[in-house]
């Protein structure tokens, strides 16, 4: 039986060459076989630095390689949909960076292509692979804290470079598409469903035209979530500032590094029960540094090899895009917006 999965990479983006690919190379079931760049010299240099044996001067050349099983897509946001479709139609499984698409209509079309080709595709939220989330799933499933009643999250960092794609609204820039997608994904995972209606307040940068401070309220019927994401607030360090708190019927949970960990970092989940007071936990679960990119690649490769491992359908991305679109519409209309059903 095949023991490893051959991966090809489209593009030499910084998130890939600096973080994802070095980590993926450490995954036992993953073989980085090829990298494609529209600048062949750049692609060859990146492939050589990462010990990737094959370099291509076009994305189509890589998709035509019969030895490639999975394609990883870290391209600019506006290219995710097109090249995910092309990769699926070329018979490849796909792991695509977030946001998977820029519109809910694109996600629906991508679902149809997935169903037609029979290939697996996921949105690359690496944080979902961190063991702290498996522990929280376990705690909530036990029923000890009761149902989740409310969630509150914050993600912030100062992204001030005009050349940063986060500052270009034409390519999916701004807080909601970037860090907001993390917050929405986390809320929906905790509630196990999408909200029914949403409302937002946005502060728009007058120069870039992106939402630089975005706050949202999500109504899940008998429960609520709120989050704030910011692209020009907080620190300027190597990672975003993050906070996620979960209020349950009989206690609470609190993460101190819940989302993207660009560098493996110790973190913890604090738990309070009915006897807890203030912000003092009754139990703390500590986690040693792990590389989320390595865990993500290993899990995906094992899935392709036929093992029973967790996976997340791209219908989750449809819920995220429905939410983002409704949040923007709520600002335009000044009113709550109901989310469409899948």
The secondary-structure class comes to alpha/beta
Output mean pLDDT: 96
Cα(first) to Cα(last) distance is: 38 Å
* Low-confidence runs of at least 5 consecutive residues: none
Please outline the major beta sheet.
9 strands, mixed
- Fraction in beta strands: 25-35%
Radius of gyration: 20 Å
Classify the fold: give the CATH topology of the largest domain: Dihydrodipicolinate Reductase, domain 2
Description:
There is one protein chain. This protein has 342 residues and is α/β, with parallel strands linked by helices. It folds into 2 domains: 5-127 and 295-311, NAD(P)-binding Rossmann-like Domain (Rossmann fold), CATH 3.40.50; 130-292 and 321-338, 2-Layer Sandwich (Dihydrodipicolinate Reductase, domain 2), CATH 3.30.360. It contains 9 helices and 15 strands. It has helices at 14-24, 40-49, 59-63, 80-89, 104-117, 131-142, 176-191, 292-304, 315-333; strands at residues 5-10, 30-36, 54-56, 70-73, 93-97, 121-124, 148-156, 197-204, 211-219, 224-230, 241-248, 251-255, 267-272, 283-287, 337-338. The strands form 2 sheets. Strands 14-13-12-11-7-10-9-8-15 form a 9-stranded mixed β-sheet. The longest helix is centred in the last third of the chain and has 19 residues, at 315-333. The mean pLDDT is 96.
Short description:
With 342 residues, the protein is α/β, with parallel strands linked by helices.
Question: Keyphrases for this structure?
Answer:
342 residues; alpha/beta; Rossmann fold; Dihydrodipicolinate Reductase, domain 2; 2 domains; nine-stranded mixed sheet
């Amino acid at each position: 039986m095949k023991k490893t999965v051959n991966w090809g990479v489209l593009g030499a983006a910084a998130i890939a060459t600096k973080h994802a690919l070095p980590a993926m190379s450490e995954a036992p079931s993953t073989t980085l076989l090829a990298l494609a760049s529209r600048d062949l010299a750049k692609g060859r240099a990146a492939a050589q630095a990462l010990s990737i044996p094959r370099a291509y001067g076009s994305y189509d050349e890589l998709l035509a390689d019969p030895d490639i099983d999975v394609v990883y897509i870290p391209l600019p946001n506006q290219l995710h949909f097109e090249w995910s479709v092309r990769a699926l139609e070329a018979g490849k499984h796909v792991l695509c960076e977030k946001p998977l698409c820029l519109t809910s209509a694109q996600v629906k079309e991508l679902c149809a292509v997935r169903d037609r080709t029979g290939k697996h595709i996921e949105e690359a939220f690496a944080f979902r692979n961190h063991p702290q989330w498996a522990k929280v799933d376990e705690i909530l499933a036990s029923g000890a804290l009761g149902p989740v009643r409310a969630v509150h999250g914050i993600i912030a960092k100062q992204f001030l470079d005009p050349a940063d794609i986060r500052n270009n609204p034409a390519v999916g820039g701004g807080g909601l598409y970037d860090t907001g997608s993390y917050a929405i994904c986390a809320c929906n995972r905790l509630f196990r469903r999408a909200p029914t209606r949403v409302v937002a307040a946005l502060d728009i940068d007058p120069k870039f035209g992106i939402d630089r401070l975005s706050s949202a309220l999500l109504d899940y019927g008998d429960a609520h979530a709120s989050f704030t994401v910011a692209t020009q607030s907080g620190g300027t360090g190597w990672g975003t500032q993050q906070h996620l708190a979960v209020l349950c019927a009989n206690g609470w949970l609190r993460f101190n590094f819940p989302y993207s960990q660009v560098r493996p970092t110790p973190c913890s989940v604090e738990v309070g029960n009915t006897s807890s007071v203030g912000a003092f936990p009754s139990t703390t679960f500590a986690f040693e540094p792990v590389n989320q990119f390595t865990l993500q690649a290993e899990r995906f490769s094992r899935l392709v090899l036929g093992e029973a491992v967790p996976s997340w359908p791209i219908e989750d991305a449809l819920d995220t895009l429905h939410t983002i679109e409704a949040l923007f519409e709520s600002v335009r209309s000044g009113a709550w917006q109901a989310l469409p059903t899948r």
